[in-house]
Amino acid sequence: MTKPRLPALDLETMRDYIDEIFPEIHHSARTLFIEAVAHGACRIRMRYHPKHLRPGGTLSGAAMMMLADFALYVAVLSAVGREPLAVTTNLSINFLRKPDKADLVAECRLLKAGKRLCVGEVTITSEGGEEPVAHVTGTFSVPPGARD
Amino acid sequence: MTKPRLPALDLETMRDYIDEIFPEIHHSARTLFIEAVAHGACRIRMRYHPKHLRPGGTLSGAAMMMLADFALYVAVLSAVGREPLAVTTNLSINFLRKPDKADLVAECRLLKAGKRLCVGEVTITSEGGEEPVAHVTGTFSVPPGARD
Amino acid sequence: MTKPRLPALDLETMRDYIDEIFPEIHHSARTLFIEAVAHGACRIRMRYHPKHLRPGGTLSGAAMMMLADFALYVAVLSAVGREPLAVTTNLSINFLRKPDKADLVAECRLLKAGKRLCVGEVTITSEGGEEPVAHVTGTFSVPPGARD
Amino acid sequence: MTKPRLPALDLETMRDYIDEIFPEIHHSARTLFIEAVAHGACRIRMRYHPKHLRPGGTLSGAAMMMLADFALYVAVLSAVGREPLAVTTNLSINFLRKPDKADLVAECRLLKAGKRLCVGEVTITSEGGEEPVAHVTGTFSVPPGARD
Do D92 and C87 touch (CB under 8 A)? Predict the structure, then answer.
């Protein structure tokens, strides 16, 4: 991941592609925005929306898990190209700090992009916050024949 | 968890309590239904809804993670009582099989209900399916002073 | 996993096979014993030994992780046969209770035995204890061409 | 973790302290070496030893898990001081690449050092290797009254 390789889909192409294959993420409100894409990495913003709250007036774990899973998906596509059937096989999340009622920013990078499995790491912070609110690792399975 | 203890909140009370403290789960459509509650255990149904789909026409990992996190929350409340600020500290999910376009049913039981931490396990199946589609373990932190 | 299928290797054969391919587990002291094998399931005993202790006079997390990983490996072999190069890709453990200075017993069952990935669950108890001391889920990758 | 705080125990003190409270890690052969300690971070070397091998002539998952758990323990002590009863509550590991028959080096940093829970991340590489062979996240529980 240290060589300056171009992503398989650039930012504009990735945004259009995701809108085309994954319209469900914008159901009821458009809150997920792809801000940056590199080869095997990306940055995603989840705009604050009260539908993501939980008791205690903080953002729900479910919202953070959805954000992380989406970031991993985009990072996988950025490495292997148009493989919409790449699926999560495993995800593990640690919730570190209570997030503010603010946007969440997810930075994702792949630790491994293999022929069959990709493993990535996501760090989620609150907009303006220094310390991460959550940390995630996840594994995606890529269908046989995926392009790199 | 083998003694026949009564849940801290019975089924009707739990449903009313969740509706009161966690209205966000029904944003845009009511899909989560608490079907059964025991002491440190519960069964939750997630009604099929196209908003939960992802590329490939299958239910998204995010939907299954939300279902599991909700099931763990209800199971924790069933053991410790009205503690709305119980929060997930860690969750780990294995996606086992592609779910059908059908309801998902989550069976949750606590493996440990301690003074500070509760650990639970969730098995998710597709309505009518035999083999689980996902398996989850998660840890919740309970604020000091929780009633049992 | 509900059909009464025979394990790919029966108990005696599994014990001999493991001794042949994995002698390292008995370095310095023989503490791991395969007590039962079914198709996609097994029971392993880790005999108490002071080398497995940690500060506080309790069995170390490392000992429990080794026991769980070994149980998963045996369960995978019981489903796919002689595939010594099956490797762990992911393991997640929750430590629930402090184990006694006693034998540990691990019960393992596979949640999924696929062509490429097997996912299993391990429950570890202290000899004579009722409640589990640890719970584990793990994923193994099986080399292409594995027999079932 | 970005402020240049001194570790609660410096390198020499930490080495002596671990030797005193955790002699079991050196049973049969001294393979774990604490190379560096900072506040909430450390670097540990696991010297290559054939006792850590598994089928396929590679280092076992169990050896890597032990290394990671030990690194997390040292990192926790470096932040909270002499708290030998700090215990792992949860650990999750992704095995990324097959390690060489060489030393393993673990770099650990805490993502959170709370009053009750510490969460850390460990990256394990083979001596001389560029890409990590394993990545771990773990949570430790610190007994009430821990000094910082």
Answer: no
Cα–Cα dist D85/D77, whole Å: 10
> What is the rounded average pLDDT of the residues A40-44?
98
Percent of chain B as helix, strand, coil, to the nearest 5: 25, 35, 40
pTM, to two decimals: 0.95
Of residues C62, C137, C44, A103, the one with CA closest to residue B135: C137
Of the CA atoms within 13 Å of residue B81, those in its CB half-sphere come to: 6
Reported as a single tens digit per residue, the pLDDT across C11-58 is 999 999 999 999 998 888 889 999 999 999 999 999 999 999 999 989
Q: How far apart are CA A28 and CA D127, in angstroms?
A: 50
Distance CA B140, CA B78 (A): 13
Q: What number is the ipTM of this complex? A: 0.93
Residue B105 lies in a domain: yes
Angle of helix C11-21 versus helix C61-80 axis, rounded to 10 = 120
Residues pairing with C124 in the sheet: C106, C134
Say which CATH number the domain at D126 has: 3.10.129.10
Which chain A residue shows the shortest CA-CA distance from D98?
Answer: A112
Establish if B110 belongs to a structural domain: yes
Is residue C39 within 8 A of residue C79, CB to CB? The reply is yes
β-strands B117-126, A41-46 pairing = unpaired
Which residues are bridge partners to D140 per DSSP?
A: D88, D118
| Residue appearing with tokens 């029904």 | B26
How confident is the model over D43-74, as pLDDT tens digits?
999 999 999 999 998 999 999 999 999 999 99
Task: Report yes or no on A17 lying in a domain.
Answer: yes
Which residues on chain B place their C-beta less than 8 Å from a C-beta of chain C?
Answer: 2, 92, 94, 96-97, 111-112, 119, 121, 130-132, 135, 137, 139
A chain contacts of residue B94, beta-carbon cutoff 8 Å = 89-90
Q: What region does D123 belong to: left with phi over 0, alpha with psi -120 to 50, or beta?
A: beta
CA-closest candidate to residue C132, choices B109, A95, B80, D68 = B109
Please work out, in degrees rounded to the nearest 5, the angle formed at the alpha carbon of residue B87 by the alpha carbons of B83 and B91. 140
How many Cβ atoms from other residues are within 10 Å of residue A6's Cβ?
A: 10
D77 domain residue, yes or no: yes
Whether residues A97 and D112 touch (CB distance < 8 A) is answered with yes
How far away is chain A from the Cα of D109, in angstroms, using its nearest Cα?
Answer: 13
Interface probe, candidates B87, B88, B89, B141, chain D, greatest D C-beta count within 10 A = B89
Overall domain count for chain C: 1
